[in-house]
TrEMBL record:
SUPFAM superfamilies: Adenine nucleotide alpha hydrolases-like, N-terminal nucleophile aminohydrolases (Ntn hydrolases). Pathway: Amino-acid biosynthesis; L-asparagine biosynthesis; L-asparagine from L-aspartate (L-Gln route): step 1/1. One of its GO terms (cellular component) is cytosol. The keyword Chaperone does not apply. The keyword Ligase applies. Its EC number is 6.3.5.4. This is asparagine synthase (glutamine-hydrolyzing). Keywords: Amino-acid biosynthesis, Asparagine biosynthesis, ATP-binding, Glutamine amidotransferase, Ligase, Nucleotide-binding. ATP binds at residue 292.
Amino acid sequence: MCGFAGELRLAGLEGDENERRDVLRAMGRQLARRGPDDEQFHDDGYLSLVFRRLSVIDVEGGRQPLWNEERNLLVTVNGEIYNHADIRSRLRDRHRFASQSDAEAAVHLFEERGEAMLDELNGMFALLVWDTRRRRLLLARDRLGIKPLFYARVGDRLLFASELKALLAHPDCPREFDWRDVEGSDSMSCSNPTYIRGVEGLPGGHCLVMGEGECAEPRCWWRIEEHFPGPGDVARRSSDWIDTYGELLHDSVHRHLMSDVPVGLFLSGGIDSTLLAALAADGGRDLHCFTVVEDSTLDAGDVEQAERAARHLGFAYHPVRYDPAGLLDRLDFNLGAFEYLVWALERPAFNLEWLFKHELHRYVRTRVPELKVVLLGQGADEFAGGYSQSMGREEQTWRMYLQRLRPLHRDLRRMDAGIPTWMGQALDDRYPPPADEAPSEFHRQMAFRTAFLQRYNLWHEDRTSSAQGIEARVPFLDHRLVELLAAVPGEQHAELFFDKAIIREQLARAAPFYPRDKLKVRFFETGRGRSIPDLRRNIVRRVYPDFREKYLCGDKTVFSAERLDLHFRHITGNPQATDQDVRDLLQSMAIAMFMRMCASLPETGPPPGLNPPSPLQAWSG
């Protein structure tokens, strides 16, 4: 994992090189956490670029940007190209390699294949290729949008960066808050909202070219819909799908273990992370396993299962105690910590999951400082039938799961079209869905979840890990696995996907010690089920008074202090105040912080809160 940022002007950059270098340094400072090990610059009068590196592959020789032999093609890559060794072996006879870096394989493959090289890359990446002879820039993002990339067109210039805050550090970046992104926060029509008018997130599976006569418009190079089953597909037995998935998953895990530094795994005790651990052990790789310990995971036996798996497989085991009641005191959570999360996550919103994930990464960084890579189970639920058991009713059938998905999916489509839910319900009464809609409903859900992953899960996993200089990897989102699951015909979904049957079958083969019928457990849902709402309310109590003094005094605030004060008194003094009331106030506070960040970023660095070392403690049982 790394980060890059810069500026392109085909007619030639303005100002002298020293001025441009100062701008690059400011942009690079915002990327220092995701690239703490090295900083490099490039400026040829047309393209100016800063690259911040987290050294994972070829620690000594993999410094970027990298060039081809003739030094007319430059490449930078944020992320990892997992099949770089295969590419290197195919190209070795025709090219000279100066390093073992995975990024160098990309520049030589581009020499031979141009933009078509994207189809051959297996990995998570946001990459840049600059052709100095043709003055032509390519920006591209991996299929599922695992690694981020932002850009803004400012006159005849293109600004770009791996993170929004790095883009905002450029003095000419647009910074007007876009309320439309907040109002459309339930819509999936945009998988990469930036909340800034004039700044765009390049979607996953898209690339952008700027050159002579090419005006930097995104182009789609991968869509999951292209892999849905067609009328000419050859029928396959369910056992064939299971076997093929197992072979690909085994290969994916081994590719994701590629690293010249220590690797960790978030081992929850659930089926996904346990399966990853078992497959990693099969390859002989040492892992550090980290488990969140709190009342609900203890009561459900997840902690016991996680420890059992780690000990059985011979991995180092690091359980960390999360106590919701004392968490805020232990973290010394204050206004600075809230501001830090808005800065790190780059969203005008607040979510406790982001805080929990960030603190887990901070604990990893403190416990094993040399560890820079962590494997996550993200993506198994989204494409292999996760949540189908919990969403099913008493009969727990696949058909009932699809029936519950159908109105949800229609409501989501209407949100994108601007149709109110109540109007859609009235339309449903007159125009019911066709009777044969259910068999392909899960395919439509796959397409929706591809966008959802980019907008939520992958985005916050990237930000919370990179804020601590850790690269998060997601073996279940190898594009070969996603494409295979997308190709399964609807009539086989119940057998393969209900309760993640295809995943559970892999677990039975790789980890026979694990109970196959283990159910998913929610974090922090103990006692009255109020742990999460109470924690949110306590954050408001701790932070709002200081927030009011800093953000609601003066004439530049967009919120009425009187109205927010009334809201605060309602939350803290009225037992009938709802959790949604608390969420609304937290979002208002986050919006004010985000707007201030956008306005002041060129002059400011990271807020001081939530830096290493972690105050969390190991759990001793």
